TrEMBL record:
CDD domains linked: YjgF_YER057c_UK114_family
Organism: Ketogulonicigenium vulgare (strain WSH-001)
Protein name according to UniProt: Endoribonuclease L-PSP
Family annotation (Gene3D superfamilies): RutC-like
Pfam families recorded: Ribonuc_L-PSP (PF01042)
Membrane-spanning ranges: none
């Protein structure tokens, strides 16, 4: 019997995740891996919306476009790393993340950091993902 390609790891000896993500994810080899650079909340028109939620949605859409170039999608994501510039922005970021990953059968691992800023003052969110299939 072949092991599933991705499996959530949730040991009962640790606190469960705070949201819709896994504590760990195991990926059976061999796999195709795709890693994105950090994607900012700015569209191809070089405009960044004021809303953290809209910027985060752009970040995830950009990550999705990169994955699609390799034939992968949100269901293949193993790890998400997010960065926001204000603590009060984490809920909007998590809403966009959860929307994007709603149909993923195995929720990826997830890290969110609060940073002092990005290359342009209007940028409020950055996201990078790792995916495997």
């Amino acid at each position: 019997m072949q092991e599933k390609a991705m499996k959530a790891l949730e040991p009962t000896s640790i606190r469960p995740p705070f949201g819709q993500y896994s504590s760990g994810v195991s990926v059976a080899a061999p796999q195709q891996w795709v890693v994105t650079s950090g994607q900012l909340g700015v569209g191809p028109d070089d405009v960044a919306p004021q809303s953290v939620l809209e910027q985060a949605r752009i970040c995830f859409a950009n990550c999705g476009a990169i994955l699609a170039e390799a034939g992968l999608g949100p269901q293949d994501v193993v790890r998400v790393a997010g960065f926001v510039t204000a603590r009060e922005d984490f809920a909007a970021y998590m809403q966009a993340r959860d929307e994007w990953l709603a149909d993923a059968p195995v929720k990826p691992t997830s890290t969110l950091l609060i940073v002092t800023g990005f290359t342009r003052a209007e940028f409020k969110v950055e996201v990078e993902v790792m995916a495997a299939r």
